[in-house]
Amino acid sequence: MIEMKNVYKKYPNGVVAANGLDIKIDSGEFVYVVGPSGAGKSTFIKMMYREEVPTSGEITINGMNLARLQKKRIPYLRRQVGVVFQDFKLLPRLNVYENVAFALEVIEEPPKKIKNKVNDVLALVGLTQKARMFPDELSGGEQQRVSIARSIVNVPKVVIADEPTGNLDPETSWEIMRIFEQINTRGTTIVMATHNKEIVNAIRRRVIAIEGGLITRDEYGGEYGYES
Fold first, then answer.
1. CATH topology for 30-36+72-219?
2. Whether 182 contacts 125, CB under 8 Å
3. Which residues form the ABC transporter domain (predicted)?
């Protein structure tokens, strides 16, 4: 599903955030990306949805070479790759239903399909009763549920989550993780950058550790491995 071949990323200030990355992630996997601050995790994640472009090397997701992807093809990529952020990135003037529906409207999905898909995904994340509420009326955990619903309403092959529990209390973080587990059991590949040691150690999945732009550890059922 995801493959990196000899990927380098050097920023204009001289910082090397990816130093020859080689990795394969199969369809349906659940992968944690861990490492100290400034290790290159965010760059690793951002290159997967083409927020960043590698300096050299190849990144392939579901057969698409992201390094060579034309700008006009990026929206097509984003239909297959859902992204969940730490700070939610919801549209404040749209209610819950409208925030999720917006992801389908921009790709010109028919109104009837939009209604059915949005209702289904809001049920999955437990927000059916709050469909008409606005982001500032929701708790942090509820806002993150909206963000997750928006990321999966297109039924993407991959969901990339960048510190999705970083702004949440422990109890809410576990609720969010249960939703990610549900999504994964449906066959969606999950790649999650996280500093949450407790979650990584309790919900054992594949762990990819990055330090200094290098993959220093790649193990199935691994532990977090750092002090948090």
1. Rossmann fold (3.40.50)
2. no
3. 2-228
What pLDDT, on a 0 to 100 scale, did the predictor assign at position 129?
96
Residues in the chain: 228
CA 162 to chain centre: 6
Q: What are the structure tokens assigned to 218, written together?
A: 């790649």
Q: Tell me the per-residue pLDDT of 170-193, one tens digit each, with 9 for 90 and over.
A: 999 999 999 999 999 999 999 999
Question: Which residues are within 8 A (CB) of 49 and not within 5 positions of it... i.e. 6 or more apart?
Answer: 77, 78, 81, 83, 160
- With DSSP H G I counted as helix, E B as strand and the rest as coil, what are the percentages for the chain, rounded to 5? 40, 25, 35
Considering only CA atoms, which of 8, 2, 1, 39 is closest in space to residue 209?
Answer: 39
pLDDT digits (tens, 9 = 90+) for 107-154: 888 999 999 999 999 999 999 999 999 999 999 999 999 999 999 998
Question: CA–CA separation, 68 vs 33, rounded Å?
Answer: 24
On whether the CB atoms of residues 194 and 186 are closer than 8 A, the answer is: no
Q: Give the predicted TM-score (pTM) of the model.
A: 0.91
Helix axes 111-124, 96-105, angle to 10 degrees: 130
Edge-to-edge order in the sheet of strand 64-65: 16-25, 2-10, 56-61, 64-65
Say how far apart CA 88 and CA 198 lie, in whole Å. 22
Cβ–Cβ under 8 Å, residues 67 and 53? yes
Pairing of β 2-10 and β 56-61: antiparallel
- Map residue 4 onto helix, strand or coil: strand
